[in-house]
Design goal:
Blueprint: H1 7-22, E1 41-43, E2 49-51, E3 54-56, E4 59-61, H2 72-110, H3 120-138, H4 144-165, H5 177-187
């Protein structure tokens, strides 16, 4: 969505769009300032980055130009797109692991385990989820509070399974005591 894009990203996109509009007007002409001439840019034939309604195209230098240089706004847009795709994959991996934990916990709630050894598969899924969440947190993809909240959610599912199976009974002053009573009424 548009409101999620940072101000810097919006500025880069506006600069790239303005450069595309004026790329045909950038013909070699004398300049009064320090530089004697300005290199001519012609729009490229193939788009470099395409996202949403904005299409960012790298400008090619003239055939006589000695070096081909990608303009800074276009380069910023390319890097932002690469990072976005990498971050999206990491977030998706975290979400997938959490969904697997939730699904197995719901299955175990409907058919409570008899012994603590039956909860081992759930614990291994929780460990995988924790590893994925920690990687995302370390790389700066996920905020530390968000990571802590998601890990706590997985732990809460495990505790609920243990309470439904009768393998964990909280004391009366424990915060989970009310949840335990609800589960006891449901199973009775």
């Amino acid at each position: 969505p548009q409101h999620c894009i940072s101000v810097y990203t919006q500025r880069v996109r506006r600069m790239a769009a303005a450069m595309l509009r004026t790329s045909s007007a950038l013909v070699s002409r004398p300049c009064v300032a320090r530089v004697a001439f300005r290199p001519a840019f012609a729009p490229a034939r193939l788009p470099v980055v395409q996202r949403g309604a904005l299409q960012v195209v790298a400008a090619e230098g003239d055939k006589k130009a000695t070096k081909k240089r990608t303009p800074a706004p276009v380069k910023r847009a390319q890097l932002a797109e690469e990072r976005r795709m990498y971050n999206k994959a990491r977030k998706s991996a975290c979400a997938t692991r959490i969904k697997k934990v939730m699904k197995m916990a719901e299955d175990m709630l409907s058919n409570p385990p008899k012994a603590e050894a039956d909860v081992k598969p759930l614990e291994s899924l929780i460990n995988e989820a924790f590893q994925e969440i920690d990687k995302a947190k370390v790389k700066g993809i996920m905020h530390k509070n968000t990571a802590a909240r998601r890990k706590a959610r997985c732990t809460r599912w495990k505790k609920q399974v243990l309470m439904a199976a009768g393998l964990f009974v909280p004391s009366a002053d424990h915060p989970d005591y009310a949840r335990y009573q609800k589960l006891a009424k449901k199973s009775a």
